[in-house]
Amino acid sequence: MDSSRRSFLNLLLGVTGVGALGSIVYPVLKYLTPPQNAEQSVASVVAATVGELKPNSGKIFKFGNKPGILIMTQNGEYRAFSAICTHLNCTVQYDPEIQQIWCACHNGHFDLFGKNVSGPPPKPLESFDVEMKGENVGDEIVVLRRS
Amino acid sequence: MIQRLLTWLEDRVDLSSIKHLIQEKTVPRHRMTGFYFFGGVALFFFIVQIISGILLLFYYRPTSEEAFESVKFIMTQVPFGWLVRSIHSWSANLMILSLFLHMFSTFFMRAYRKPREITWITGFLLLGLSMGFGFTGYLLPWNKLAFFATRVGTDMVSVVPLIGEWLLRVLRGGEDVTGATLTRFFGIHVTILPMIVFALLGIHLVLIQQQGMSVPIGARIKGQIPFFPNFMMKDLLAWLLALAVLAGIASIFPWELGVKADPFASAPAGIKPEWYFLFMFQALKVIPAHVLGMEGEVLGLAAFGLCGLLFMLVPFLDRKAQREERSKLITGAGWVAVIFIVAMTIWAYLD
């Protein structure tokens, strides 16, 4: 009789203790999680202008708050990808010598379609659409997120 | 005068245990006695870290706009600022080096066997925390190398099952490495890590005093050296040497500041983390993207985590050491670890 009363009290104490601790820990964990700031979910940006890139070169541009890479291939075609390496988040660059997109951090290589061809990257780069506003020097080259 | 002061103190505080310790503590003399110095040397570098770190706090500003400029100000305008920063960076590296030497020497001497399991575990955690200090401190000058190192390093936590993504957001203070990350790392570097380290270091040092120095299994003891003052004098000599080395390196090779971080620049070619992360970096670099249907990176990190865990629990795994016997398996595993770390590090430098 007495011992069951004791264990009931212990249970009550335990539950209250966990509750009290939780009421402290929960707000602290929530506080540490940064609020989701209005994600700059841009759909398209002007990445460059005609004449800015020479064949076989690349350029990093701002796609919202993330870097993107615009490439002009050897035969004058434009391609655009997310510049964030799918391995561990480094920013990639265009390597004109091997005509590949290259990540300096862990030596990852992607081909001109953004496909991961060697090194540790497990996935291809996210690719974007490229839209030319004209053919003349100074005309805008717009990069759009694929829908 | 001193005697009167001591009597005054003794009337109020019980000093008998400290007195006892001072009089009784000895250090066994044997072939490996020299390895007893590295723990003390690491402690010395830690003290240097506290002092130089506090000094840096007087000028440093932890925001993405001002961090780089404030470190530049310390390096170029503040009298001896270059020296203080250089000392802080070099001492961090020398501290980690001493910790590795300390850890492997205690490992091979089986200093972790009963009753020193807790000393070993706190020591292992202290090494991990020191690497955490190194990782968070590296970002604070907000230069290009640090920016990418942090992006890579934080991205690794996302492989932690279930809470990885959340952990990543908490560490970075958002989706990406930004000024918010810098401020968080600063807070972790100067408040959270020091608090945990002080607690663990306290336990570690008290246990060492209580348990005394471990004697390697089967070591031929050629007598005992009284700790006070004989061994302490040698310790101080080691500290003096450590200071000389530190001061020499820090003034001849001042720590570089590099280029300010630009979130919209490509990672520079030849980018590498600090040397004590190089072996993991190199391993992650050479593991292919997919191994047995798993992402190579996940596999690599899981393997490192498992090895770390086994290493921390070695006092409980090494059954032979519990019976005061040497195990070839444990020695072999230790050498594999040493050779792996050294070889991977050299490879990363040459690559």
What does this structure look like?
The complex is a heterodimer of chains A (147) and B (351). With 147 residues, chain A is α+β, with helices and mostly antiparallel strands. Chain A is 21% helix and 33% strand. In chain A, the strands form two sheets. Chain A has a six-stranded antiparallel β-sheet with strand order 1-10-9-4-3-2, with no helix packed on it. A four-stranded antiparallel β-sheet of chain A has the order 5-6-7-8, with no helix packed on it. Chain B is mostly helical and 351 residues long. Chain B has a two-stranded antiparallel ribbon. In chain B, a hairpin with a 2-residue loop joins strand 3 and strand 4. At the A-B interface, strand 2 of A face helix 7, helix 8 and helix 11 of B.
Structural class of chain A: alpha+beta
The number of helices of chain A is 1
Give the total of beta strands of chain A.
Answer: 10
Question: What is the ordering of alpha helices and beta strands of chain B?
Answer: HHEHHHHHHHEHHEEHHHH
Give, in spatial order, the strands making up the sheet with the most strands of chain B: 1-2
Biggest sheet record of chain A:
6 strands, antiparallel
State the share of residues found in helices of chain B, binned by percent. Answer: 55-70%
Strand content of chain A: 25-35%
- What is the approximate shape of chain A? elongated
The residue-averaged pLDDT of chain B reads 93
Largest sheet properties of chain B: 2 strands, antiparallel
Average pLDDT metric of chain A: 89
The poorly predicted ranges of chain A are: none
Write the layout of secondary structure elements.
The complex is a heterodimer of chains A (147) and B (351).
Chain A: H1 2-32, E1 44-49, E2 57-63, E3 66-72, E4 78-82, E5 93-95, E6 100-103, E7 108-110, E8 116-118, E9 127-132, E10 140-144
Antiparallel strand pairs in A: 1-10, 2-3, 3-4, 4-9, 5-6, 6-7, 7-8, 9-10
Chain B: H1 2-10, H2 16-24, E1 26-28, H3 37-57, H4 67-76, H5 81-108, H6 117-139, H7 144-155, H8 164-172, H9 179-211, E2 224-226, H10 227-252, H11 275-286, E3 290-291, E4 294-295, H12 296-312, H13 314-317, H14 319-322, H15 328-350
Antiparallel strand pairs in B: 1-2, 3-4
